[in-house]
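yo

u said u wanted the structure for the complex thing, so here. seqs first:
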Amino acid sequence: MSIAELLFSLELGMIFGIVAIGIYLTFRVINFSDLTCDGSFVLGAAVSSILLKSGYNPFLALFAAVFAGVIAGLCTGILNIYFKVTAILSGILIGFMLYSINLKVMQGVPNLTLINETTIFSGYNPLVILAMVSLVVWFIMSYFLVTNFGLALRSTGQNSLLSTTNGVKIEYMTMTGLALGNACIALGGALFSQHQGFVDISQGIGTIITGLAAVMLGEKLLPFRSPWIMIAACFLGSFLYRILVSYALHSEVLGLSTQDLNLITGALIVFVMIIPTRKIQTC
Amino acid sequence: MLKLRNICIKPVLQNLDLELSKGEFVVVIGANGAGKSTLLNIISGNITPTHGQIVLDDQDITTVSAANRSVAIAKVSQDPKVGTMTNMTIYENLAFAALRGKRRGLGFFSRRSYKKLFKSKLAMLHMGLENRLNELVANLSGGQRQALSLIMALLADSKVLLLDEITAALDPNTAENIMQIAAQIVRAEQRTTIMITHNMKHALEYDDRTILLANGKFSKQFDPQHRKQLTPSVLATEFC
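structre next:
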C-alpha cells in the first residue's frame, strides 16, 4: 500500500468516523437499532450538493445537511414513539422513503457532479480540513455525552426503567439520540460528496455496515467506557476498517478485486465479533 | 399524605384503599401473585389503574406519568440490575440519581460537593464503596449493587419511598445490613415508606404497620398493639 493510498484511507476514515459516531449514538448510546442511516447519508450528500450547485457557501451546505439529518432522525423517532412502529421497521420505512426524497432533492437525477463547484476542500489540503472537522465533532459529541443531559441520554440505552423512575423522559431522549445520530451521518454524507466531488442516489448502500464495523473495531481496540475515548474509538475503528479493506483489495496474495468489497466487509465484521473483548476499562 | 382510593386493576387488585401519614413505614406482605409489586408499580406510575385515585399531598397524581412522579416517589426494585446502570461508574450512577426531578442541562456532573456527599452516603453502607467511586457497577456484587440502588433512591428528596423485596437476592448478613440502613435513613429523614417483603422478621422489626394483601384486597392489618403478640412464624401462617 502506497503513502497516497494510506492518506486517502485516512481521509475516508475520518469521514466515516463521523458516520460511525452517528451509529454509535443510536445503536450503543440509546440502544435503538436505527436503519435510517443508508437514507440519511445520501440525504446529507444530496442537500449539500444541491446547495453547492446553487452557489451557497460550502460550510452552510454542511449545516443544511446536518439539519436535514436531524429531520430524518426525528421522523424515525416519531414513527417509533407516537405511532408505535418497531425501531427496526421505522428506520427501514424512513430510509425507504428517503430514497424518493433524495431523488427530489437532487432534482430527479440519480447523480450530480461537483467538479466545478467550490467545496470546503477547495484550495486546502483535504487531510487538514477533515482533521479539523473531526476534531470539532469529537469534542462536541464527547462533551455532550459527559454533561448532565448526556448522562440522561446514556441512561436511556442502559436501563430505560431506571431512567423513567429517575424522571428522564425516554421518548424525548430517544428522539434526541436519533436526531443527533442522523445529523452525524448526514454530515458524513455531505463531507463525502464534497470530498469525492459527486453524489449518487445509491451512495448510502452499506452505510450501516461500514459504520457498525468501525464502531465494533473501535470498541475492540479501545475497550474504555469514557465517552471521550469511545468517540475517538469510532474514528480509530473507521480508519482501521478503511486500511484493512484497502489492504485486502490491493493484496495480490489474496487475489481479491473491488467486487469482493461486501464479502471482505462482512467477513471483517464477523471476525471482529468473534475475537474476544478485553474487560472494559473505567477510564 | 399518600392516599389510595378505590384502586382497581383487574383481575389483580380490587378496590384498594390505603392512607399513609408522613414518615410512616408500612410493610405489605402476601403470597406470590397477590399483587404486591403491581401495587407499587401503580403508585410509582409504571402501571395506570383501571379505576381509582392516587392522592399525594392533596394532589391527584393518578394520571401523572412515572417520569414526572419521580420527583416525589422513589423506588428500589428486588433485582439489583434494575436499580443500577451496569456500564456506568458508581459515581455516574449516583450523579444520575442526584439529579432526579432537577433540570438536566449541558453542565458537567463532576462537582466536588457531589463527591463529598456521595462518599458520606456510601460510607454508611460499610462496604468500602466510597473508595471505589470510579469503578464500574458491573464489577460489584449483587449485594453491593442493591445497596447502591438504595442510596440512589434516597439521594433525592423524594417524599415517598417504595421498597420492592429489596433483600430478596441478598445473603442474610447483607440483607440485615441493608434493612438497617434503609430503616435508619427512613426514620431520620421521615420518609413515607411502603415495603414489600417475604421476610416476616423484617416486617415485624422495622415497620409501623403490616398489611396482608390476599386475593387482590387488603385482608388484614396488624397495628403496633396487635403485633406485640405476633412472631414471624405466626405472621407467616396468615398467608394460608
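DSSP finds eleven helices and two strands in chain A. Chain A touches chain B through 23 residues (CB under 8 Å).
cya
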